[in-house]
């Protein structure tokens, strides 16, 4: 288990140097944890690194803003980047290595191969962001090859992404365990996201409508409501009352799938995507049916 401290993290830029670290850990019989990120780290990312440091002998955090998962009109060029600050945040946790490659390292000239997804990658986020999950799956598979870890850590906020990664691991026989950790929220309930830095104070207030609507759904289900359409209607009404939110979708899904449900009869994930100003945000919540009387 890693000892925490305030030693500067070791930053590796090349796959060759990374391979040396991984080989040494494997030869020593050490359990390796991998935490893939795009940087601009917040407490959600740090919770993943902390989980790895607690459960593994060696923790490797990757920081790479992956261009292949951004659409042509998305925020690739302005996506927040602050490597020095990211390194400082990781120092107290006991992270062993930060792998921070360049775009040219990950996608050298002539790179053509991509991972393609089926229906799982074409609905919800996949429909709103065509090609997004192909880019995600491609870079994650590359990272799994570069860091053949025992466990990889992802956050539940990107619910559909976790399903895509698990499907890819199953389909392509990748020998790695996928651990999904809970959403980390600000004190006011807003799900932490690197893109929250785009929000003005007024937009932040409006963005709270997403988590509030999810809480509303949970409260209604706890009170006995089971009809998915009525839940969605109440959520939409709340978002309209808040104002300033351009809703992309609300989906009530059988947990562990992207299959819509009509009634809340088992564990269900309520997922939401919306724009507040120029910022696109996603959130979700697991809800359970009220216990039978």
Give your account of this protein's structure.
The protein is of the alpha/beta class. It folds into two domains: 10-181, Rossmann fold, CATH 3.40.50.620; 194-286, 2-Layer Sandwich (Pantoate--beta-alanine Ligase, Chain: A,domain 2). It is 37% helix and 19% strand. The chain contains nine helices and nine strands. It has a six-stranded parallel sheet, with helices on both faces. Strands 7-8-9 form a three-stranded antiparallel sheet, covered by helices on one side. The termini are far apart. 35% of the residues are buried. The model has no long low-confidence stretch (mean pLDDT 96).
Rough outline: globular
Helix % is 25-40%
Treating each run of at least 4 consecutive H or I residues as one helix, how many helices? Answer: 9
CATH H-level superfamily of the largest domain: HUPs
Query: Would you count the extended β strands for me?
Result: 9
Taking all residues together, what is the mean pLDDT?
96
Strand order of the largest sheet: 1-4-3-2-5-6
Biggest pleated-sheet summary:
6 strands, parallel
The name of the CATH architecture of the largest domain is 3-Layer(aba) Sandwich
The low-pLDDT segments are none
The CATH topology of the largest domain = Rossmann fold
> What series of H and E elements makes up the topology?
EHEHEHEHHHEHEHHEEE
Q: What structural category do the secondary elements indicate?
A: alpha/beta
Number of domain modules: 2
Q: Determine Rg (CA atoms, Å).
A: 20 Å
Cα separation of the termini: 45 Å
CATH class of the largest domain equals: Alpha Beta
| Proportion in β-strands | 15-25%
């Amino acid at each position: 288990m890693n000892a925490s401290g305030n030693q500067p993290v070791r930053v590796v830029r090349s796959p060759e140097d990374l391979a040396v670290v991984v080989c040494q850990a494997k030869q020593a019989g050490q359990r390796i944890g991998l935490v893939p990120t795009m940087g601009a780290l917040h407490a959600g990312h740090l919770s993943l690194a902390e989980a790895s440091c607690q459960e593994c002998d060696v923790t490797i955090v990757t920081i790479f803003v992956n261009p292949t998962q951004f659409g042509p009109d998305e925020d690739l060029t302005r996506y927040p980047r602050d490597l020095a600050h990211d390194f400082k945040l990781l120092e107290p946790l006991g992270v062993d290595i930060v792998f921070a490659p360049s775009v040219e390292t990950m996608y050298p000239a002539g790179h053509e191969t991509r991972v393609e997804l089926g229906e799982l990658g074409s609905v919800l986020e996949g429909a709103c962001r065509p090609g997004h999950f192909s880019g995600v799956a491609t870079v994650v598979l590359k990272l799994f090859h570069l860091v053949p870890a025992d466990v990889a850590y992802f956050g539940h906020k990107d619910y559909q992404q976790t399903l895509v990664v698990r499907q890819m691991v199953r389909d392509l026989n990748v020998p790695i365990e996928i651990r999904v950790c809970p959403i980390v929220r600000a004190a006011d309930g807003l799900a932490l996201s690197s893109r929250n830095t785009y929000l003005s104070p007024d937009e932040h207030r409006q963005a709270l409508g997403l988590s509030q609507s999810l809480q509303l759904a949970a409260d209604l289900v706890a009170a006995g409501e089971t009809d998915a359409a009525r839940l969605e209607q109440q959520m939409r009404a709340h978002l309209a009352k808040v104002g300033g939110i351009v809703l992309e979708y609300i989906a009530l899904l059988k947990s562990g799938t992207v299959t819509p449900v009509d009634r809340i009869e088992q564990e269900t994930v309520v997922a939401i995507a919306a724009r507040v100003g120029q910022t696109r945000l996603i959130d979700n919540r697991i809800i359970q049916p009220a216990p039978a009387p």
